[in-house]
Every structure is written in structure tokens, then in C-alpha cells.
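Deliverable D2.4 — example input (C-alpha cells):
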């Protein structure tokens, strides 16, 4: 037995240590290492070297095993001797206890073997080395088998020869062929030998799994199952998710149907009988002896979860399901997940049937269903699939379908899915025959109209039953009604017509009165159903399908007739740019206001569309369509304007025609023999006036020579002339005239026509003209004509007020001549009015005109800057004539100073005549304009005179007598309205001298007596007859 003290050649260990791994060869081992007699040193030297050359490595392992075999035999013999001694004293009872578990004998044997290794450290180290060398030999054998069965690795890019350079004329053909063969036969193994020997075996298996070296991995798992099988799921987890299960099916856990658990594959170790050093007793004894091995053993750096026991069926199913869902969610490769589930199904793993169905359906969705052209593909997982409702899955199948292929996609993708749902419901004990129909109908109700039309075209009653997507005729009718009346589309009328043309036609008997009433009631109820409410803002197609569900064939047929009429009406409305959704026809079926509003829009917006109506024929076409919408259909169905009469339609049409400004066409249509408008002249006049007023109200400028004001004016040429038409024309002219005076509604903003029309007191506009234009008062006739055209042509009171404003404006401009002339005109107008009917129906007007007149005369007559005393007395005399009795004291208070001034002047003139002196004119008094000159416009707004105080006297009769005497003695002119004027009387007096003064005084006395008896009689308590 060699020992550590055996003499060794001095140069061999040194030579061996000096050799590098790359320099090692079989000769070195044979001539350098093998001659060394120290078994421990040689074994350690063999264990220390890990090479990539399999032949040299195997030679080293064989040498090491040869040198450690003796130590293994000695240890095994020692263990056998201990076992024999213990077995001699062992009885039957102890054998039974041994079978139940380790007993005292086992512990004694373990202690003895530990003691042996502790005493013989060299044998302990050699046994431990032998165990490692045997493990390496097994891995080496596995490596050799991997190299035989694993495919040859691809050559590197540097060694790849381009095909076009292979035909080298100077190359040696034979030599090149042999070299190529040699290169192809010698490929790199999937893992280097040194790595396999030095690394942890589980780690190496995971590396092979991650690199998809499944043959090499299978060999490792088969040959080293005792080490790798507990980590099988960790190793499988390293396989890339995109790998197909068919490539590594031998590595997947199999299922034992008889045991209802995972089947553990039978191991295929390289040595059927393990060496003594690999037994549990030896390993435990070596560990217990405390003898350390100087070599580092590989360890697994990854966190592993060993599973030493076989999984039961539910655990195995759960693992497969988790793996499938992870593969699908991480890669989106449904084919990889499907291949895995198919393998599990082939192994009989229970509980995966439904997952297999789901994966098959997902595969159809991912690979067969149409996908978005530009968008990225969606990621699918089993959890997402199972969280979706059937309706959502159907939408996913047909999300990117087209009208050309939707029918084929329904048959190829949707129907298999619906059949799977039906079969699952049956397996669950809840059969539902209408499940597939219900889900398909739900998709149709929410699909675009183009897709719906394509589905209906693939469901025509003329097609074979097996080829139809929707196979029930009544279902088709209900779906069509729900889709069309529930749609908001207003521009897809051809598509809607396509849907209608696919519907079945039933031969129903003629309806009696009760059935017709029932059908009408159904339509009315449907109109109420689609009308928005707070509970249901919009009736969806699904809601409408619930409404149509219980209807019998007769009601459905009637509803289809109504739908036909509504589709035709919808096309007509869309043609004239006033489209409406189909539900509008139901909502307005009994609402005349809605129908009238839509008809107005149709008549007025027709010319606003892209294709303007320019000829009479175009407008006749519009009228024809509007009249068609007011008629009932052939089946008696009510059209869009069923509640409007023919006259209503013609009125609306004519109003719309006028609103476009096509007045020449309107005149032609009124005189046309081909179109019977049948409108009364009064109706035509009303329509023209209304349209003219619309143009007027919308005008931004008051000039009636262009724009909307011109249209408003020209529109009145269409009807025959009448007082109303003339009045409206004059008002437009007056508006244009007012705007020409640059009136402002606000600073910097000219007044608009609508403001003029909305002004309640239009005379205030005249007042604004007079106040904003310095010379406007000089054009009396222009202003009066403006007042007449503003609507006051026969209003004398308005004329009097206008004259009063002109006089006041002239007075403010100190133009007393025009003020007096205007006042004379006003007085004559009032006198004329009083002479016509002072006590009849016009008494109120007379009173109002008189009120304005006396105030104006009073204002001008007492003006301090008015120099003509005679005219002032004339004006105040008119004021006395027209004012109410209670205002006489006020007027007389202003009369007295002017009268005294006039008397003084007359006396001076008389004295001058007596002296023979020349006639002296009355001095012109210039005084500052005081508070008495109050503008008349403000007084016209509030007809209230200032309260002039009259001196109090104890007796009213005395006061009246005194006033009467003063006036009768001094009034110098005729107080009546129809006598001579003061000017003519003064001329007579100048010719006849003092006689005229006496006669004039007599006339004045008589007239003053009459006036005072009439006006001041109330002071004396006299009756009106006096």
C-alpha cells in the first residue's frame, strides 16, 4: 500500500506541475504522471486538471479512478466487517425495527465508519476524490453522447465561403473536398467539456435549456435524473417562451393516468450499481469525519425550487395552464401556446380542454381574422380572453373586416366560436339554443350600416338556408327596423335602401279597420318610444329591437311599408340639404310644429346648398318634392309632411322662394299655367310682407338701394299694390332717409333698421334728426313727408307734434320767422281738425292736438328774444284759444307784460302823430335768454305747464271781472280763429287814423267777451251755455 512517504522521482511531479492544460497529452500522462507512486498526489493531480479534450480528460479520470480504487475497497471492507459484527447479534425483533427506520445498529455502523475515515485520512481523501472523479466520468460520458447525437453547430462567419468564390481554378479539388468534409464533421459542442465538468449540473442544464439545445438537455436529464429531476420545472422555465413544445416534448412532465399524477421517467444512469463512495453511508461518514477536500466543488448560483415529489393531476394542470398563459402573454405567439396545450392533451392531462378551445379560438383571431393595416397587432392572453364578454369577442373577430368579406368572416370565425359557447352551455347543464342568434344579433345592431348591409345581402330569403347569415325572415325585419330607426346617419341613404331591398315581403290579407288602427297605434307608440326623455336620452337599436320583438307579421309588414315611405322621404330631404335621421319621421308623425319647421328649412336652405336653384324648373322640382312629402304613400303610410295641407306647403314654398331673393321667378310662378299655386292675393300679400320684414330685420344698413334693404323693398313688388304694401314701402323709404341723417344708436355705432322698427315712439326718431342736424328744421315738407312714411300719414296729432318740434328747433336756433310760420301752419292744422269733428269720435285727437298747439304757441309767444310783439300777442291769443280753462291764468300772466309794452308803444306812436313827428319804431329789447325759454320737446313728453302763481284776491268774481275789463279794453286783435289777422287790422288802422283805433277796440272787446265767457266762465260759476 503506497503512502505519502513513498520515495518519488524528484523530477516527475515538477514536470507535471510545469505542464499547462493545453500541453497535456496522453504521453504526458503515461510517462510523467502515471509513474508517480503516490496515489493521493496522483489522484489530486487528476482531479485538479479540467480539460476540453475529451480523450485526455478521460485518460486522467481513468488514472485517478485507478489510484483511488484501492482506498475505496479498503473502506468498503471496513464497512462490511462492521456490518458482519452487528448482524451476528441481531435478532428478529431488531430486523423488524430496522425495516421501520434507522436503529442503534445503524448508528453504530455509521460511527465506526466515521472513526475509520478519521483514523485513515488518506483513504478518506481518496474516497472523496473518487466520488468526484466518478461524477466527472459520468458527465464526460454524457458529453461524448451529446457530441454524437446533438446537431453540429454552425460555422463561424469567418470560415464561411461565398459560393461564387468556391469555383477556384487554381485550387486543388481533392484537397479542398477533404478539408470541407473535415470542417463539417467537426463542429463545436453545445457546451464546452470544461464548463460541463466544472459547473453545477443544474446550472448547465438551465443554460442548455435557454439556448434551446434540447437534445443535449434530454441526454443530461436522462443520464443524471437523480440530480436534475427535482429541478425539472426550473429547467423548463429557462426554455424560451417562443419555442414550440414539439421541439422539447420529451422534457415536458408526462401524466400517469393510472396514478392520476405526474409520471417520473425511468432513470438511465451510466452505472446501474453506484460505487461505494457514492452510497449514502459513505457520504455521511465522510462528512462526519471532518476530512476536508482541498478542491472546490461547483454550486448552483440560481435560486431554485426543487420539487422531489410527483405532482398530482390538478397541480400538473395548473402548471401547464400557467406556462401556456405566460407564453401567450409574454410573446403573443398563439401557435407556441397551442402546441403546448396540444401536447398536454395528448398526454391526457385533465382540465385543459376549455383552455385548448380558447387557444384554438384565439389562434383564429390572431392568424385568420383580418388585422389593421398600419396598427400594431394586439397582445392576447388567456386571462384577457376569459375576461371579455362574448359580444366583445365577436367584435374583436370582426373589428377590421370589410363589406366584401364580412359574411365569410362570420361563417369562418364567428360561428365556430358561437358553437363552442353552445357546447359549453350544454356541458354545464344550461343549454341555450338562442345563444348564438342573440350574440350575432347584438353585433348586427352595433355594426356600421355598411357592414349591416353586407350581412343582410348575405341573408336574403332567396339564398339557401345553410348559406344565410341570418336565417329567420322575421328576425331580419326586426333587425332592419331596429338598425335603421336607431341609426343617427343622415348621409347613407343608398346603404339604407340596400338593407331595405334585402328584406322579405309577406303576402298579408287586406287590413280591416281594426287592424289598420292597430298598425297606426303601433307607429304612434313607436314615435313616442324613440322620443328622447330624461330616463332614455336616445333609443338605441337594442332598445328598438325589444320594441319590435313581440310584433306579429302583420304589424311588421305594416312597419316595413312605413319604412319604405320614410326612406323615400329621407332621400328627398337629403337631396335638398335638410337631412334628418329616420327616427325623426317617427317623432314628428303627430307633431305639426316639427313638420312645419322642417318644411321651412327645406324651402329656405335649398338655395343655400352647393347646387343652387337658378331656374324656374329647379324651383318647380322643389315644389313637387315638397308636395310629395305631404301626400300619403301608396300603402296609406304617412309621409314626412303628412300633417301639412297643400296650401300650407305652397305657402312655405313661396316664402322660401322669396327668402332667396328670386323675385322674378316668384312672379313667373304666380303667373304660370303649369304650376297651380292656388294662393289668395291676400295670402300672397301676407307672405310678401312677412318676407320683406325678415329682410328688413336682418339688414345691417338702412340704404334701400343695396343689400337686404333692397331685397326688402323689391320683395314688395311681387304682390299687387295695396295700402299695406304701400305703407311698408314708405316705412322702408323712411328708414333709408333716417339712416341718411347719420343717427347713432350709441357713440360711433350707426342706428340699425331693426332698432328703428322696434322704436315704440317713432316721432322720437324725428326729434333726434332735428337735434342732430342744424338745418333739418328748415325743410318742413321733407320732415313731414318722413313722418307720413313712418306710419303717420293720416295722423293729424303726429303732424301737429312734428310741427311743434320744428317750431321748437327753429326757436332754439333763434330763427323766429320760421318758428312763427311753422306755428301758423300748426294752428291752421288744428283749426281744420277742430272744424271737422270737435265733439265726435275725433274729440280725443282734437284735445291732444290742441294741447300740443297751445303749448307751442305759448312757448314761442312768451319768448323774451322774440322781437315782434304783435306776433307774440297773436301766438298768446292762440294759446288762450286752445288751452284748457285751468291754464288761462298762466297764459294771461304772460299776456299782461307784452300787452302793456304794446300799449306803451301805441301811445308813443299816437303822440308822435299828434306832434307830427315821424313814426318811431318800438325799441328792440335785448335780454338774456332766461329760464322761460324751455325746449318744447321736453314739454311734449310731459304735458305739464309750470305752476304760475296768480295773485290771490278775496273774491274770484272780482278777479275775473278785473281780468275781463283789462282784456276787453286792451286786446288789439281778433281773438276768433276765423276773423282777420292782426296784420290786416293794423294796415286798416294806419289808413283810417283814430277811427280804426276805436273800431278795433270795439271788435277786440266783443271777441274778448266771447273768449272770456267760454274760457273764464268757470271762475264766475257760469254755465257753458252763457
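Example output (designed residues):
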Amino acid at each position: 500500500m503506497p503512502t505519502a512517504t513513498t520515495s518519488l522521482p524528484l523530477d516527475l511531479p515538477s514536470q507535471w506541475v510545469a505542464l499547462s492544460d493545453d500541453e497535456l497529452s496522453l504521453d504526458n500522462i503515461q510517462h510523467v504522471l502515471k509513474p508517480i507512486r503516490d496515489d493521493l498526489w496522483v489522484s489530486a493531480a487528476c482531479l485538479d486538471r479540467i480539460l476540453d479534450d475529451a480523450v485526455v480528460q478521460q485518460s486522467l479520470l481513468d488514472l485517478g479512478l485507478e489510484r483511488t480504487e484501492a482506498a475505496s475497497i479498503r473502506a468498503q471492507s471496513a464497512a462490511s466487517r462492521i456490518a458482519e459484527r452487528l448482524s451476528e447479534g441481531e435478532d428478529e425483533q431488531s430486523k423488524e425495527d430496522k425495516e421501520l427506520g434507522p436503529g442503534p445498529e445503524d448508528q453504530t455502523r455509521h460511527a465506526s465508519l466515521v472513526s475509520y475515515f478519521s483514523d485513515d485520512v488518506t483513504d478518506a481523501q481518496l474516497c472523496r476524490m473518487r466520488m468526484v472523479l466518478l461524477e466527472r466520468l459520468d458527465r464526460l460520458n454524457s458529453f461524448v453522447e451529446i457530441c454524437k447525437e446533438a446537431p453540429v453547430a454552425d460555422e463561424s462567419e469567418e470560415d464561411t465561403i461565398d459560393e461564387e468564390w468556391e469555383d477556384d481554378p487554381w485550387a486543388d479539388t481533392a484537397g479542398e473536398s477533404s478539408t470541407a468534409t473535415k470542417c463539417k464533421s467537426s463542429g463545436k459542442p453545445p457546451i464546452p467539456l470544461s464548463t460541463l465538468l466544472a459547473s453545477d449540473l443544474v446550472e448547465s442544464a438551465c443554460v442548455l435549456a435557454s439556448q434551446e439545445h434540447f437534445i443535449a438537455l434530454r441526454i443530461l436529464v436522462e443520464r443524471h435524473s437523480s440530480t436534475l429531476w427535482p429541478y425539472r420545472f426550473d429547467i423548463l422555465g429557462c426554455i424560451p417562451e417562443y419555442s414550440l413544445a414539439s421541439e422539447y416534448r420529451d422534457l415536458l412532465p408526462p401524466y400517469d393516468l393510472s396514478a392520476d399524477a405526474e409520471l417520473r421517467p425511468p432513470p438511465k444512469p451510466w452505472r446501474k450499481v453506484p460505487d461505494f463512495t457514492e452510497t449514502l453511508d459513505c457520504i455521511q461518514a465522510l462528512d462526519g469525519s471532518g476530512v476536508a477536500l482541498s478542491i472546490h466543488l461547483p454550486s448552483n448560483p440560481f435560486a431554485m425550487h426543487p420539487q422531489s415529489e410527483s405532482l398530482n393531476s390538478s397541480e400538473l394542470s395548473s402548471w401547464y395552464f400557467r406556462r401556456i398563459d405566460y407564453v401567450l402573454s409574454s410573446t403573443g405567439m398563439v401557435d407556441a401556446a397551442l402546441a403546448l396545450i396540444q401536447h398536454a392533451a395528448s398526454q391526457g392531462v385533465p382540465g385543459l380542454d376549455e383552455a385548448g378551445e380558447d387557444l384554438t379560438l384565439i389562434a383564429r383571431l390572431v392568424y385568420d381574422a383580418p388585422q389593421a393595416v398600419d396598427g400594431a397587432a394586439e397582445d392576447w392572453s388567456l386571462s384577457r380572453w376569459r375576461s371579455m364578454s362574448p359580444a366583445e369577442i365577436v367584435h374583436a373577430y370582426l373589428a377590421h373586416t370589410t363589406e366584401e368579406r364580412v359574411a365569410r368572416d362570420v361563417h369562418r370565425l364567428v360561428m365556430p366560436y358561437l358553437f363552442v359557447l353552445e357546447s359549453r352551455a350544454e356541458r354545464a347543464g344550461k343549454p341555450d339554443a338562442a345563444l348564438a342568434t342573440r350574440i350575432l344579433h347584438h353585433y348586427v345592431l352595433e355594426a356600421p350600416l355598411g357592414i349591416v348591409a353586407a350581412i343582410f345581402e348575405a341573408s336574403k330569403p332567396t339564398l339557401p338556408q345553410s348559406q344565410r347569415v341570418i336565417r329567420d325572415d322575421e328576425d331580419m325585419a326586426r333587425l332592419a327596423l331596429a338598425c335603421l330607426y336607431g341609426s343617427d346617419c343622415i348621409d347613407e341613404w343608398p346603404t339604407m335602401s340596400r338593407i331595405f331591398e334585402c328584406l322579405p315581403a309577406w303576402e298579408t290579407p287586406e287590413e280591416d279597420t281594426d287592424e289598420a288602427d292597430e298598425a297606426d297605434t303601433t307607429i304612434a307608440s313607436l314615435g313616442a318610444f324613440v322620443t328622447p326623455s330624461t330616463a332614455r336620452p336616445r333609443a338605441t337599436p337594442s332598445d328598438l329591437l325589444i320594441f319590435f320583438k313581440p310584433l306579429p307579421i302583420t304589424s311588421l309588414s305594416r312597419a316595413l311599408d312605413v319604412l319604405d315611405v320614410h326612406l323615400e322621404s329621407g332621400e328627398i330631404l337629403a337631396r335638398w340639404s335638410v337631412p334628418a335621421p329616420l327616427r325623426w319621421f317617427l317623432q314628428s308623425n303627430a307633431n305639426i310644429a316639427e313638420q312645419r319647421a322642417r318644411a321651412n328649412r327645406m324651402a329656405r336652405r335649398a338655395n343655400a346648398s352647393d347646387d343652387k336653384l337658378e331656374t324656374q324648373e329647379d324651383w318647380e322640382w322643389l315644389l313637387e318634392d315638397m308636395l310629395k312629402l305631404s301626400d300619403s304613400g301608396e300603402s296609406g303610410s304617412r309621409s314626412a309632411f303628412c300633417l301639412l295641407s297643400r296650401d300650407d306647403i305652397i305657402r312655405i314654398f313661396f316664402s322660401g322662394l322669396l327668402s332667396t331673393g328670386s323675385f322674378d321667378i316668384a312672379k313667373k310662378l304666380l303667373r304660370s299655367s303649369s304650376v297651380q299655386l292656388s294662393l289668395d292675393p291676400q295670402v300672397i300679400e301676407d307672405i310678401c310682407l312677412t318676407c320683406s320684414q325678415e329682410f328688413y330685420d336682418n339688414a345691417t344698413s338702412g340704404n334701400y338701394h343695396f343689400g337686404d334693404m333692397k331685397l326688402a323693398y323689391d320683395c314688395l313688388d311681387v304682390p299687387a299694390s295695396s295700402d299695406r304694401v304701400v305703407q311698408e314701402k314708405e316705412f322702408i323709404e323712411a328708414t333709408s332717409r333716417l339712416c341718411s341723417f347719420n343717427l347713432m344708436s350709441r357713440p360711433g355705432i350707426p342706428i340699425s333698421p331693426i332698432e328703428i322698427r322696434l322704436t315704440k315712439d317713432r316721432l322720437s326718431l324725428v326729434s333726434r334728426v332735428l337735434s342732430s342736424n342744424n338745418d333739418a328744421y328748415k325743410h318742413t315738407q321733407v320732415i313731414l313727408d318722413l313722418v307720413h312714411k313712418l306710419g303717420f300719414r293720416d295722423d293729424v296729432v303726429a303732424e301737429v307734434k312734428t310741427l311743434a318740434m320744428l317750431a321748437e328747433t327753429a326757436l332754439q336756433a333763434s330763427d323766429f320767422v320760421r318758428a312763427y310760420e311753422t306755428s301758423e301752419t300748426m294752428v291752421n292744422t288744428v283749426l281744420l281738425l277742430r272744424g271737422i269733428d270737435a265733439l265726435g269720435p275725433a274729440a280725443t285727437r282734437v284735445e291732444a292736438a290742441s294741447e300740443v298747439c297751445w303749448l307751442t304757441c305759448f312757448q314761442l309767444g312768451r319768448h323774451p328774444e322774440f322781437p315782434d310783439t304783435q306776433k307774440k300777442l297773436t301766438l298768446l291769443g292762440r294759446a288762450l284759444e286752445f288751452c284748457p280753462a285751468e291754464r288761462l291764468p298762466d297764459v294771461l300772466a304772460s299776456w299782461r307784460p307784452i300787452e302793456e309794452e304794446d300799449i306803451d308803444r301805441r301811445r308813443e306812436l299816437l303822440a308822435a302823430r299828434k306832434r307830427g313827428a315821424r313814426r318811431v319804431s318800438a325799441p328792440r329789447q335785448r335780454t338774456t335768454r332766461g329760464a322761460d325759454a324751455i325746449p318744447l320737446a321736453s314739454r311734449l313728453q310731459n304735458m305739464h305747464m309750470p305752476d304760475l302763481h296768480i295773485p290771490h284776491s278775496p273774491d274770484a268774481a272780482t278777479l275775473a271781472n278785473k281780468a275781463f275789463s283789462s282784456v276787453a279794453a286792451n286786446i288789439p286783435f281778433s281773438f276768433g280763429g276765423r276773423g282777420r289777422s292782426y296784420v290786416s287790422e293794423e294796415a286798416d288802422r294806419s289808413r283810417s287814423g283814430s277811427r280804426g283805433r276805436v273800431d278795433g277796440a270795439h271788435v277786440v272787446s266783443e271777441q274778448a267777451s266771447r273768449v272770456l265767457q267760454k274760457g273764464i266762465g268757470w271762475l264766475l260759476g257760469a254755465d257753458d251755455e252763457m
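Residues 1-8, 153-186, 917-1026 have pLDDT under 50 and may be disordered.
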